Amino acid sequence: MKIGLAIRELHRSEKSLARALLKAADRHHVEHEIHYVAKDLAAWSADHIRDLAVAGRRYGVKVGEEMPRSSGLLEPLRTAFSVLTGRQAVPGVLLLADLRQLHRMAAGVSLDWELLAQGAQAVKDSELVELTRRCHPETLRQLKWTNAMLKTLSPQVLAS
Amino acid sequence: MVRDGIADPWGARTPYGPGTPWPVRVDSHLAEGVAEEDVDSWVRAAAVLHSNGDGMDLAVKDGRIVGVRGRADDHVNRGRLDPKDLFGWQANHSPDRLTAPLIRRDGRLVESTWDEAMALIVKRSKELLDSSGPGSIGFYTSGQLFAEEYYTLSAIAHGAIGTNHLDGNTRLCTATAAAALKESFGCDGQPACYDDIDHADVIALFGHNAAETQVVLWDRILDRLAGPNPPALLCVDPRETPVAKAATLHLAPLPGTNVALMNGVLHELIANDRIDHDYVDNHTVGYDDFARLVADYPPERAAEVCDVPADQIRAAARIVGQAERLLCTVLQGFYQSHQATAAAVQVNNLVLLRGMLGRPGAGVLQMNGQPTAENTRECGADGDLTGFRNWANDDHVAELAGLWNLDVTQIPHFAPPTHLMQMLRYAENGTLGMLWVSATNPAVSLPELRRVRSILSQERLFLVVQDAFPTETTELADVVLPAAIWGEKTGVSTNADRTVHLNEKAVEPPGQARPDLDIWLEYARRMDFRDRDDQPFPPWNDAESAFEAWKRASAGRPCDYSGLSYAKLREVSGVRWPCNEDHPDGADRLYADGKFFAKPDYCESYGRDLVTGAPTEPVEYRATNPDGKAMLKAAQYVELHEKPDRDHPFMLITGRTVYHFHTRTKTGRAPQLRDAAPEPWLEMSAHDAERIGAAEGDLVEVRTARGAVRVALRVSAVRDGVVFLPFHYGYWDTDDPNHDRAANELTPTDWDPVSKQPIFKTTAAAVERVKAGEGPAPAPTTAASAPAATGIPAADTGPADAPPPTPTAPAVPETHGGPAARVEEHDATTVPGGRR
Ligand code: SF4
């Protein structure tokens, strides 16, 4: 059975998405909505990571339950950089690039959930099906958010 | 009868029972030495210092306003007046009114002519349009102007210039009301009306200190409470407000936890099957997802998050669950807090689940903060498209372009309208080069003031400020334009229950001050804006022609004004929209037939994600709500962004108080109001005061990650762990250059991702005693800031390092206004000048 593999892969992709969200939150500290919502959404991924770790045990997958709540050692540096360049228009382009990257990562995570849901149904693991039913919609909401922020913020960046 | 309008803001009771008309009580106040028979004329107006929209007349003598009187024939107030209206008009005569344009020269504001000032604005606008396009110009307006003015500004900003950057200060008070209505009903528009108080058997006030924010509405509730078969009252508020004191049940949750609380209450409703299944089945979508979400919030879980006993949550659910005519109201305690829209939407869900909509006594009032916030929203001056049109619906945009005879590409609709906080960010990063502020004072009312000041004072930002008074914001402007105000110009205002009033010009504006409408129309002419046929745009030229144009823009939309006219509004004191062929006298309630403005082709909004704020795509909306039913939506509780910790152990909330409005630009210039609450204060519970070793009247410093303020301490009945600071006070009336007085020095830059309303009520703060005070705090004793009932410690006069004083008897003198605050109350038979 390859279910374990799918769980491991999804765990990995959720983890990098969470990290990327936290990083974006710091890099764009002066974009307040990005900063706060990215952190709120990273918490969703953190929940997914924990639940996947628990589910993985049944398939002999050993992965960590914990997710760091900050973007790591560089957090103060990233924040300081954002504040320092807050009076310039240029970081706007960087923001669009980061949102684009986040969007692609979230799309990947969504596909991984899709796969896991298919597998869980095939092996009739109803607990796992329930997990995908609960988490996947949140990934889709993360995906829609990155898309919406791109749509909302890009006109000013591109036209100025 | 005579009362002291300051000592007794609510006046004498006129008790009445359910289903009977609210008795008349006419309040009047004339300047000292002016008698009834001295008055030359009485001029029709409506209250503009809160959102209640009380009908009133201004007394005019020798070209000056000399007093006011409530209108007995007005369904909103039946004659009663708020203390702010009884005394606030005096600000019109204030000696420091702005009377000539000012221009910044060599760093200083100097007097100029209108011609010079306007030429400068036009020159800068044209330069920016040429070099950087319409996105480099933004407008920030108010909730205190008239519909004609907002409509004109929307036409200029969205139409003539084509910028997406237009918002009102309604963003600070009523953006969440609009957002919540859109989420549930697909469209803005107040479902219920104030008359529902006459019929309700349960009134639930969520974060709504009506006693102070809508004095006359509270009168109405008090009169019901004093009459036969009074309604039960449910109050949710962390402070012991007059509403909390009168309530059958008072819940005082920790600030920022409203969603958890509401989820818990609705969980109970479902668990006990207090649901009107017929209504839910026939008129709503989304029940299953909704029920699944709140299933995760048993009262115990909510109780833990909110720090409220689980039994109280159950009791609250029982009260609303057993109501036969349930009226719910919501205001800033929800709107200015964490997860604002998600919490406010839960109140809509409550009335939907119980089928309490569209009949006498049953409904929801998502309140407004400001007097004409409704007009800002419907005319589109808060960024929404004019007439509750949907920016994401190309047909709606085309319709508006047709109305304006402009090319459809001229109206920006590629993204949601830019809200104020985002506009400020664009000014910060330099992509917004010009900001035109009208009738509002962001340098005091926005969060994180140090940041706001630094943005607004940038050299590269061209700041135009249009106001009646010098303010903290005009100080930072490049051009200041003197504006005429209420009483000095004509226009309509619409209150929180959709009642439209005509305000007539009573006196001439001082000096060269001009109505905002005239200023914008002159700007349009000087910019030479043209429509598709090369005719001047906007084509209207005064208040009445602007109103006629607005009527056409509103026709067929939910906020339909087409059946109204100035002539009609001179006959009837207040008409509720929609007013059209179907409803020639207006309509008391929306959604009486369980039909909503939510059809995909008609709705104002396709909604947003309640946590991320991402707009819903049109196809998705069509798929989930093809028939345009009401939508049951809910969100999980999201952890606070700023939680109390060791260094900042208190939760700071800020808010409005009974004698003041906005940043006191007017109320601080009316002697009775000024003296009733002359300085800011901090409210803290007796238990917390003891913990920090401070007593009534002591000077304390409140500190957050953003700044510090120093104010006197009032030991009040606010809940433990929470401190309250009034947000009205700025710096124009102090000599102190320290910026240590305005509550917004402390608040964070953070907003609800759905409504984009800034959060003023969840800030982690530290409080320290600085030194003994010279007496009790300058806080009113009449309202929520009343001294704690028992064991209030007297002011300590010892040195700063003295041990905490021992509690003694209260030494706080009661707030009163004296002879200058004399208000006459008349019943229906003794109204001065006879019955009108
Ligand atoms: S006081 Fe401020 S927040 Fe409250 S209603 Fe007025 S403008 Fe809005």
UniProtKB/TrEMBL annotation, chain A:
The name this protein carries in UniProt is Uncharacterized protein
- Species of origin: Kutzneria kofuensis
From TrEMBL, chain B:
Extract one GO BP annotation from the record: nitrate assimilation
Gene3D superfamilies recorded for this chain? 2.40.40.20, 3.40.50.740, ADC-like domains, Dimethylsulfoxide Reductase, domain 2
- In this chain, composition skew of type Low complexity spans 773-800
Question: What highest taxon heads this organism's lineage?
Answer: Bacteria
Q: Which cofactor does it need?
A: [4Fe-4S] cluster; Mo-bis(molybdopterin guanine dinucleotide)
Enumerate the residue ranges of region (Disordered): 735-755, 772-836
Which parts of the sequence belong to the 4Fe-4S Mo/W bis-MGD-type domain? Answer: 40-96
Q: Name one GO molecular function term.
A: molybdopterin cofactor binding
InterPro entries according to UniProt: Asp_de-COase-like_dom_sf, CT_Nitrate-R-NapA-like, MoPterin_dinucl-bd_dom, Mopterin_OxRdtase, Mopterin_OxRdtase_4Fe-4S_dom, Prok_molybdopt-oxidoreductase
Regions of biased composition (Pro residues) lie at: 801-810
Keywords, ordered alphabetically:
4Fe-4S, Iron, Iron-sulfur, Metal-binding, Molybdenum, Nitrate assimilation, Oxidoreductase
Q: Which family does it belong to?
A: Belongs to the prokaryotic molybdopterin-containing oxidoreductase family. NasA/NapA/NarB subfamily.
Name of this chain's protein: Anaerobic selenocysteine-containing dehydrogenase
